[in-house]
């Protein structure tokens, strides 16, 4: 049978790993380059400056 101490260590370890994965996911998403939105914005700015 699993003891209370072992269960607590397991839960704390899994929680720490989960939070690290969430942090890494958000770091990658925030720092990813989204070329489609930037190119649309640049295109509309260029089009507006020509007129």
TrEMBL record:
Protein name (database record): Dolichyl-diphosphooligosaccharide--protein glycosyltransferase subunit 4
Flavoprotein in keyword set: no
Broad class of where this protein is predominantly found: endoplasmic reticulum
Record-annotated membrane-spanning stretches: 6-28
Top-rank taxon, per record: Eukaryota
UniProt-annotated location(s): Endoplasmic reticulum membrane
Gene Ontology CC annotations of this record: oligosaccharyltransferase complex
Entry membrane topology: Single-pass type III membrane protein
InterPro entries for this protein: Oligosaccaryltransferase (IPR018943), OST4 (IPR051307), Ost4p_sf (IPR036330)
UniProt keyword terms in alphabetical order: Endoplasmic reticulum, Membrane, Signal-anchor, Transmembrane, Transmembrane helix
Entry keyword Transmembrane: yes
Family membership noted in the UniProt record: Belongs to the OST4 family.
GO terms classed as biological process: protein N-linked glycosylation via asparagine
């Amino acid at each position: 049978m699993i003891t209370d101490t072992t269960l607590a260590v397991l839960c704390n370890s899994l929680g720490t790993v989960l939070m690290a994965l969430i942090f890494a996911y958000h770091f990658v998403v925030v720092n990813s380059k989204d070329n489609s939105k930037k190119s649309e914005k640049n295109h509309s700015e260029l089009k507006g400056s020509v007129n």
